[in-house]
Each structure stands twice: as structure tokens, then as C-alpha cells.
Amino acid sequence: MKTEQVRCWRTGLKGELFITYPEGDMGHRLICCTACGKVYAVNVTKQLYIEPDLDAHLSGKMCIGCGAALDTNWRYYPEHYLDESGKLRAFERTQIIPPDEESVIEAFPEVFS
Ligand SMILES: [Zn+2]
Description:
By secondary structure, this protein is mainly beta. The chain contains 2 helices and 8 strands. It has helices at 44-50, 54-58, and strands spanning 3-11, 17-19, 28-33, 39-43, 74-77, 80-82, 88-90, 104-109. It has a 3-stranded antiparallel sheet, with no helix packed on it. The chain has a 3-stranded antiparallel sheet with strand order 4-3-5. The protein has a two-stranded antiparallel sheet with strand order 6-7. A hairpin with a 5-residue loop joins β3 and β4 (39-43). The longest helix has 7 residues, at 44-50. The termini are close together. The chain binds zinc ion. Residues 33, 35-36, 38, 63, 65-66, 68 line the site of zinc ion (ZN).
């Protein structure tokens, strides 16, 4: 997996989570490994053309953070994330996109590259 630069915003109570707002067929979604919490990017355009079914695409892929099978250990992030104690928690996504000037660029391993 190669890393891709992802435009996202810091969110969550302490600003510790990242959130993306892909538009149409552009941008990135984020997923996380539910075993270790490692965050991955999903390039929406690549997903559309290569394999829309993420379970199928992640079949046989291992988490680069912990080695767990990704197809059975992924959830959408930050709707689901691991807290500091390793507990899987839920975060409610807001539909209001924060201002552009508050966005940050982060690098995440991208599952289609
Ligand atoms: Zn992992």
C-alpha cells in the first residue's frame, strides 16, 4: 500500500479524530482496523473503478499495523474508532462541512494503491 495525501478535518472532543467529506466520485473515505485502530484511506475514484465492494477488495489483505485480516476487521472511520484504551467507539458524523481553511492534509495508507 502506498500512502496518499488526504484532505481532512480534525474532529472529536479533543480534535483527535480525522474526518473526510468525499464529494460524488472524488476524494477519500477513511476506514480503520478494529483490531489496532490503524486508519486507512479509500480513494473513492479508484474504488469505483477497481472494486466497489470493499469486503471483496480487502479479502486477503492484512493490516500493516497489527497483521489482522482487514476484510473482517474494518469499519468506517471516524464513525467507528478505537479510543486510547483500545475500545471500539462510535462517533456521530456531522453533515455540515467545516470551513476549507480549517482542513489539514494527512497521509494515510491507501487500500487501492
Ligand atoms: Zn490493525
